[in-house]
Amino acid sequence: MKPDPLVIAGKAYNSRLLVGTGKYKDFAQTREAIDASGAEIITVAIRRTNIGQEPGQPSLLEVLPPSQFTILPNTAGCYTADDAVRTLRLGRELLDGHALCKLEVLGDPQTLFPNMPETLRAAATLVKDGFQVMVYCADDPIQARMLEEIGCVAIMPLASLIGSGMGILNPWNLKLIIEQSKVPVLVDAGVGTASDAAIAMELGCDGVLMNTAIAGAQDPVLMAGAMKKAVEAGREAYRAGRMPKKFYAATPSSPGGGLIGGT
Fold it and tell me: Is the pTM of this model over 0.85?
């Protein structure tokens, strides 16, 4: 099989599964689950996780060193464009000028749905400031196109609400975004189990980002391995090209000609 890397901002990755680092019982379980997932890009909430902004405290980078993983600072917990920009500038400083980031500007603390006007405003500022912006957004094809035109390096529409585990609620909008986009499209938020990840990949998504689906499982390490397999299987199925659906018609799976005793 030909190599099939995920390319983001000019860099190739073997894994199409991106994972978060929150909600695990400790850093040891975080590392074990991430190893099981095979993920190479690890997203970190700058406002919630110490990566050097709290000197003397345990740092996640001691467990997940940037020499082994691409650290993706994110703006979880930000509700305005200004807060998001300020947070990512801090993250870039802590990571020695690292430009790749994940932007999310939330609309309210109940749904964690993206505030798209503020997201668009923050994206424009960050791109102009030299960031390589991967952006969490609504599954709106028009706004997804606007984010790509601004210069975002990846579009990340939600499948359903963050942490809900409801899976993909609107595959049609996702397909519209995938078909129009020239940058990678990754499902971000709402995946609950392995079949959700496989469906996202079968639809043509370039990758899947998740946190709660792994960290919130009864056995996070086992679920991380399941998600790795699901993403790989879904991608292979997409590349293989599924058979067409045939409504109200059955077709034998074996050839009908030359049957024993046939005429």
Answer: yes
